[in-house]
Amino acid sequence: MSYEESRKRYAALGVDTDAVIRLLRAVPVSLHCWQGDDVRGFDTDPSKPLTGGIQTTGNYPGRARTPEELMADLDMVLSLIPGTPKMNLHASYAIFENGEWADRNRLQPKHFRKWAAFCKERNLGCDFNPTFFSHPKCDPLTLSSPNAETRKFWIEHGKACIRISSYLAEELGFPCVMNIWTGDGFKDIPGDRIGPRIRYRDAIDEILREPYDFSRVKPCIESKVFGIGVEAYTTGSAEFALCYAAMNRDKCIPLMDNGHYHPTEVVSDKIPALLTFFREIALHITRPIRWDSDHVVLYDDETREIAREIVRCGGLDGRVHIALDYFDASINRISAWATGYRNLQKALLYALLQPHEEMKGLQDKGQFSRLMVLQEEIKTMPFGDIWAEYCRFCGKPADGEWFPLVEEYEKKVLVNRK
Length: 418
Ligand SMILES: C[C@H](O)[C@H](O)[C@@H](O)C(=O)CO
Ligand SMILES: [Mn+2]
Hints:
- By secondary structure, the chain is of the alpha/beta class.
- The chain has a single domain (27-355), classed as Alpha-Beta Barrel (TIM Barrel).
- Helix content is 41%, strand content 13%.
- The strands form three sheets. The chain has an eight-stranded parallel β-sheet with strand order 3-2-1-12-9-8-6-4, with helices on one face. The chain has a two-stranded antiparallel sheet with strand order 5-7. A two-stranded antiparallel ribbon has the order 10-11.
- Strand 2, helix 4 (113-121) and strand 3 (126-129) form a beta-alpha-beta unit.
- The mean pLDDT is 97.
- The ligand C[C@H](O)[C@H](O)[C@@H](O)C(=O)CO is lined by residues 34, 39, 54, 129, 181, 222, 224, 257, 284, 292, 325.
- Keywords: Isomerase.
- It comes from Aristaeella lactis.
């Protein structure tokens, strides 16, 4: 079927596909830099182990080893994805110039000058993350450590990151979402659960005392149920993060990563729950398989459901900050990046093409049989034509066109990285 015919089918449902396409193209979605180099970063020895309870598995050729390689790979990805991407950097991706080096507690905006220039040239906003892992000062705890020296170091890191986030927001003219996540926790049954949480709370309080304009810098608190080696207890549990954000609504927002909950919990259902109380929330979209495995985002049921809730709850009006967070080293990293980003775009498009008012009306009137039939029949609407038109409208390759470009890049560029 052609776009024209498909557009009429959607119009009959009351959906204006042209308006949807225009709307989606303007929605910022953060592209995580860490998919390109297996979360290694540049500020410390890249061969060091990845800590904090996260893991990349696989050894596919072509990992970016330098900022230049990462930027070249990002350019390749940017050429393949429709929409409005925003960069998402971890502090460990600092770029030092003229032989200088600074530890994480001494990082400055100038160490992100090259990233700011990269974003500016491409008209991208940039989100930011303090990196509380893969560093000798993890003892292994960071902000919740009983050691005051350790906490001081990481608090200073958090404050430095607020200053860097303010710089990125100012320089690029887009708000900077700054996410606080630590892998702090214990492998086995703790002897004290509340102590680390009180220290964690106080440390975040201290970080957020660093001045910033909350309309431009958006600190987030991300929770996690467990990590590798921290199976029994995480300091920043769901209740901790949510309570912290609720008690500090004028300073920060909660962030939900859909790999960070018990396997039967779904973030799609948590989105409207949080938006009942918070003006803004942030999301890390990933794909857990049995655990927080950070697999590439697919066009699957839960991704579509998350997108439907973002759309239905008015999240595209700046209330939901959307970012990707996964890392796969077992397949072509650029393909992984583009597949996940395109799938999230597909899920958002799919969500925007639904007659939400009608569905809500059927629910409110108790017409659940009709609601079920409508929801099922939407699944076989000619979505593919609208997706192809969206890619064309954004000037990006359609399905079937982009993967050969990745293969070509792999042959020309990636295989030469030994
Ligand atoms: C790089 C990490 O994935 C990220 O900072 C954090 O958001 C996370 O999800 C850890 O599991
Ligand atoms: Mn995350």
